[in-house]
Amino acid sequence: MSDAYLVLEGLTLAYGKTVAVDRLSLSIAAGELVALLGPSGCGKTTTMRAIAGLMPVAGGRITLDGREITRVPANRREIGLVFQSYALFPHLTVFDNVAFGLKLHGLSGTALRTRVEEGLTTVGLSDFAGRKTPDLSGGQQQRVALARSLVMQPKLLMLDEPLSNLDARLRLEMRTELQRVQKESGVTMIFVTHDQVEALALADRIVVMRGGGIEQIGTPEDIYNRPASAFVADFVGFENIARIKGDRLATDAGEIAPGRPLPDAAGLAWRPRAVPLGTGPLQGRVRGVSFAGSSREYVLETPLGTIKAETDAALPAYPLGAEVAFDLPVDSAAPLQVLG
Ligand SMILES: Nc1ncnc2c1ncn2[C@@H]1O[C@H](COP(=O)(O)OP(=O)(O)OP(=O)(O)O)[C@@H](O)[C@H]1O
Ligand SMILES: [Mg+2]
Questions:
Q1: Does the Cβ of 291 fall within 6 Å of ligand 1?
Q2: Contact 297, 272 (CB under 8 A)
């Protein structure tokens, strides 16, 4: 599988004088499901709009399936785009919503009906063809929007926060559904989320964006277990981050000598779960404790500032104000190449 199906080279995008995306380069393979993950304002929607041809490119190139499309009009790019608000036609049936784009392309009769029925089957809506779209649930409406794009057989399908206005349960269901549809149809898909759990669960690869550029690209395992920078670490739940300063660990609050060799990295990061309590060479004071069902979450005041720990709820609880031993084991830390 070559990576070069969709290629962005030095893509720069601006709103007037405000540069929103700065020399972004990225290659995506055919059939890949890629998540763009990042905080609000980092340039996710802007990047997708440029790929779709909905905003001019200030610098760089976009190539899709071997053809440069940087300046090709949107309607000749064969790219589908699904937004958070699906913008279905409320006066049309599910069938006619899905058929709409195909009709514009001149399809009619049996050919049209077959394509629409295939699309509805793929998203599990065959029984709803005759319904008006306002009479559907949020998840069903989302499926119509998905089918409407899929039946066009786009070279690339992009979804901008497709699940963000569904409730938690539907969201989970649609997440699985989206993955199934993508694998079955084989369509190359980019989707935007700022929910790291969603990105980890769905994507073949995750692109973490920050401030108009790419911070890290990797598989969900890479991003979750081997964040390259403090920014990515923090984003995927490593709440404890320290710099390595010779043989010491340091934060803005202070430093400690852990008394053991430290790896060759700029810093180390631990998830709360990786911080054992009641054992270890370090001391902290319990400033907060909250019961979270199967676990207990602690906030400790330590010479390194605030440290967060999470223990099994079956273990004895430490009360507020208690002095407690803890450890920051090097073995269970993620080494960071870049701080900040
Ligand atoms: N129409 C616009 N005019 C001017 N600036 C804009 C416009 N749209 C977006 N921006 C700016 O461009 C930057 C990137 O915006 P973009 O919408 O791509 O972010 P995003 O990553 O999609 O964020 P969110 O997660 O909130 O949707 C932001 O700083 C934003 O303020
Ligand atoms: Mg956006």
A1: no
A2: yes
Give me the domains of the chain, ranges plus CATH numbers: 6-232 (3.40.50.300), 233-336 (2.40.50.140)
Give the 3-state secondary structure of residue 255.
strand
Q: Is 115 helix (H, G, I), strand (E, B) or coil?
A: helix
Contacts of 4 (CB under 8 A, 6+ apart): 27, 29, 63
pLDDT in tens, 62-82: 999 999 999 999 999 999 998
CB 126 within 8 A of CB 120: yes
Terminal alpha carbon distance of the chain: 34
Q: Which amino acid is at 294?
A: S
In angstroms, rounded to a whole number, what is the distance separating the alpha carbons of residues 227 and 217? 10
Q: pLDDT digit string (tens) for 235-279?
A: 899 999 999 999 999 999 999 988 889 999 999 999 999 999 999
Q: If you take atom 2 of ligand 1, which residue's CA is the nearest one? A: 15
Residue 207 corresponds to which tokens in the numbers above? Answer: 């692109």
Residue listed under structure tokens 């430290």: 262
Q: What is the DSSP string of 3-23?
A: S-SEEEEEEEEEETTEEEEEE
Is 194 near ligand 1, meaning CB less than 6 Å away? yes
Ligand 1 proximity of 51 Cβ (cutoff 6 Å): no
Query: What are the backbone angles phi and psi of residue 219, rounded to the nearest 5°?
Result: -70, 165
What pTM did the predictor assign?
A: 0.88
Distance 215 CA to ligand 2 centre (A): 17
- What is the CB neighbour count within 10 angstroms for residue 285? 14
Distance of alpha carbon 215 from alpha carbon 209, whole angstroms: 5
Instruction: For residue 307, give the nearest of 244, 259, 252, 239 by alpha carbon.
Output: 239
Number of helices (H), then strands (E), belonging to the chain: the values are 8, 19
Query: 248, 254 in Cβ contact below 8 A?
Result: no
36 pocket-lining for ligand 1 (C-beta < 6 Å): no
- 110 class by beta-carbon count within 10 Å (0-12 exposed, 13-18 middle, 19+ buried): exposed
| Residue at 24: amino acid letter | L
